[in-house]
Structures are given as structure tokens and as C-alpha cells.
Amino acid sequence: METLIDAAQESALKVKSHLQGKITKTTLAGAIVDIGQNVPGVVHISQLRAEPVNRVEDVVQAGQTVDVWVRRIRDDRIELTMIEPLAMEWRELKPKMVIKGKVARLESYGAFVDIGAERPGLVHVSEITHGYLKTPGEVLHEGDEVEAMVLEVNRRKKQIRLSIKATQPKPEEILAEAKAEPKRRRDKKGRNPRPEAEAVEAGPSTPDPTAMEIAWQEAMQRAESKRGVKTKKTKVSSSREQEDILNRTLVNRLPTG
Predict the structure, then answer these.
(1) Number of CB atoms found within 10 A of residue 189's CB
(2) The domain containing residue 121 runs over which residues?
(3) Which of 26, 49, 147, 239 has the fewest Cβ atoms nearer than 10 Å?
(4) pTM score over 0.70
């Protein structure tokens, strides 16, 4: 059963930890590396480089400083590799996992995204955005950094299906968010959190008149209207009387024949 070395080393060393060490000894099976731990680091001959190796001395020599990565931690040794590990192993890829990557290649049917795995993941053109796309090149370019969700992992076929649109809000969610925004501007009691600001913009407010006040105002307006008609009639009548008096006066002063 594998056990960790001690609490201090457990916090310092993890699988895929990048270290530098010095080759202290070479053997037919690999090399011993001093990485500053209480137990030796061991690099198997198959982990010296990605290409096949016939002799350990063809790759490393005693006293040489090398870059290594932790593969496994045991109680009596730390297994290392000089082959830089993948950022994402097959066993680490799970559906619905959200990961970041870089667009490596565009095709008419989709985009291949490098996520640090053995193979790039494929984002089908229908999984790029919620809207219709004729080709991936309408919104993506090689080298773009994107965030995608893992839809399916087929280790046997070495296939990874990804979706970019799965990490983005749906159009209906955006619309609902926009409609809900004015409500969030109000506090829990339904009042505007800044009534003073709106009062300044809208000016002083007046209370709505009651039904009795409206009836009283209408009655006053009718009364005013009637008084206006009477006043006008009085003025017309007075003007006619003055005309009659003036005519009679003129007639009386005319000389008789």
C-alpha cells in the first residue's frame, strides 16, 4: 500500500510537481536523483524521454542537473519522470467539467481546442454559441483562449467532445436578468434606496385630490362660468341704454323746421 512520506513532504510534493534534481547514480533500469528529500528520487529508463532509450547513459550522466516531475510518492522512494506530464490526464477528464483551453485548429464542422490533454477536444459548430453559425470562423480564431464544458470523453477512441455555449447564459436567461434588474434596485420594503435623488430629478410632488375636492372644483368652475355670462349680458344691456340716451339727446337738440 502506498503511503506519503510525512506531513511536511505531503504539503510540498504532489503528483505532477515540477522539481530540479541532480543525478547521483545511473543503473541499467534508470537513474537515482537527489531532489532534497529524505528518500531518493527514481527515474525509470522509460521515463527519461518520450522516445525509446537503449542505455541510460545516452540521456543522463552522474552529476547532471535535470528537470523532473513527480509521478508517484511511496514510503521508500519518489517515482519521477523527465517527460513533462500532460496538464489533463484521461482519468481526470469528467463530463460537465469546465476547463480552459486555446483554439488550435478550425474546421468547417467545428473547432479543436487544446486543453492540455493527449488530444485536443472538439467543439462542434452547434456547440460554439446559442445563435446560428455557418462556420466557426465567424466567432473564433486560432489562438483564442476559451472556456468550455466537457460533454463526453471516449478514452478508447481518444475523443473529447466540448461545448463553449454550455458555459454561457441562454438568451432567455439574459432577458429575464434584464427584466429583473429594476426590481433589484429597490430595497426589501419595495422602496427606492435613493428617494432623495429621484425627488430632486422629479421635483416636488403634490398629493392627488380626493373625490370631494374634485366635485368642489367643478362646482366652482360652473359658478365662475355663469357669473361670466351674466356680466357679459349686463355690459351689453348697459351699452344699449347709453346709446338710446345719446340718440334722444341729439334728437332734442336738433333745430325744428
Answers:
(1) 6
(2) 90-167
(3) 239
(4) no
